[in-house]
Model the fold of this input.
Amino acid sequence: RDPASLQVEHCQTLRGMARIILLLFACLSTSNAGGPKKEGVCDWTKGRCSDDNNLFNPRLGLASEVLSQSILKDAVEVFRDRNIILPTFAQLSNPKTIPVEIQRALEKVGPDDKHPLNLFRIHWYNGPDRKTRVDVPSYLVLPPELTGVDATILIATGANFPMITAHKVLAAYGCLAPRLAMGQFNPKTHRAIWPSTGNYCRGGVAISRIMGCRSSAVLPEGMSRERFEWLEQWVSDPSDIVRTKGTESNVKEIYDACNQLEKDKENFLFNQFADYGNHITHYNVTGPALHHVFRDFVAKEGAGRNLRLRAFTSATGSAGTIAAGDYLKDHAGSKTVAIEALECPTMLYNGFGEHNIQGIGDKHVPLIHNVANTDLVVGVHSELTDAMSILIDSEVGRSYLRERRGISADLVEKLPLLGYSSIANILGAIKAARYYGYGKDDVIVTVATDGSNLYESEFESIKKRQFGGKFDAVNAGEVFGKVVLGASTSDVLELGEVEKRRVFNLGYYTWVEQQNITVEEFRSRRSQEYWRKVRSQLPKWDALIADFNGRTGAAVKVA
Done:
């Protein structure tokens, strides 16, 4: 063959070899896409993370069997001696199923009494007096005159919960009760540690106290004075209030204090940010309650209309309450909207900072946040929630709402049921309605964790800082115009696949690198099948609670 032919054949061979090398490189790249497992990054080329991780992890509340017969025996003895009955989660989800003798006995128990029967009031069906049971959870209907959007916003009021006038007592029960029934928490020897930025630790202290367990609240020193005054009345010893450095955003400092406390084996940590009992309880109790609120509104106002539940909004906080959004998505097809303070935009911009929307946490993504099922993130200015608190809690502001905005006197008088995070949830709903263009037949539901009574000690300082010490009708109009009518679609992020990856992976630096969660435990949370398996534990928990009550023999006698 001539040299020219040999040269052509040689070039073709080289091209063939190059193709093979490129193909091999592509295969290797694909198999490693998303990074090695040790870096805690999911294999996104498969569309999901591995969900074969074992769900048995008692440290995170993932267990559904008796773990220690000896601890269970001690717990049964304590509850038998004190005649304490634990409600099942099915009863808290549907209080009509609570035994009649217990319902009658509750008539003689005040909602703030340190009485074990108040465990049966830890649900959404308490009336405004916080004592009687109602057929539908209490909620407010926020009309366009108040919100500035055509969509209707419904907000369930958490101030009707017993003992702490906030719904976070439900989360605390959801973390403690299963641990008792499975023989993991020993009320004779353990001290319950409740880390929080306010309401969860109060709920934990309350249920610990009425169960006769010692407990400690761990919270930032900069939280409202009302929280500390309440704790001082409920803890067994003043040293059981652990004040950490900072304010709402300083969750890392809470973790550091808890890690020190956990070195003492008598301390049992109930970390709401990583305890799946928090998620499971809100999915199965708060979710159905909010769906009931929507259905009740449809029954009353739906004639001739095609009302649709479009979205649920919730500040992330510990990511317990936002689990109700998973329930509503499963049963009504709604979107889940996460709210965070714009001064500390963790999910929005990987940001950090200080803010005053007390109770919503920040600077990290909670382990129990089902990020992959979240649709929208909305930033809300802390100074705006402060300003709205003054508007709805002052007579000048309420007069403005009645006389200038045409809002009914009945609704205006109920607005103090809204605390800082409640207002943030509403503002997030307004921004979501504008972003998605929701109309008159669209409904958004949300929750009011607590009321303004927990923050009144701060109102004078807010007036001085924002209004020069005096709040008048002009200020009221300016606040309404800026906060409500001026709420725009800025600082709103729709979570596509890439953004979900970013927010999900952001949690790695808290949980794997700082809090001793394994990579496998962290990665498995990407799959929705994983969350379904987590929630499937609840019927087993109820069976354990029923067995626990049977062992104690506790009963209510009605004269």
Remarks:
- The two ends are 114 Å apart (CA to CA).
- The longest helix spans residues 3-31.
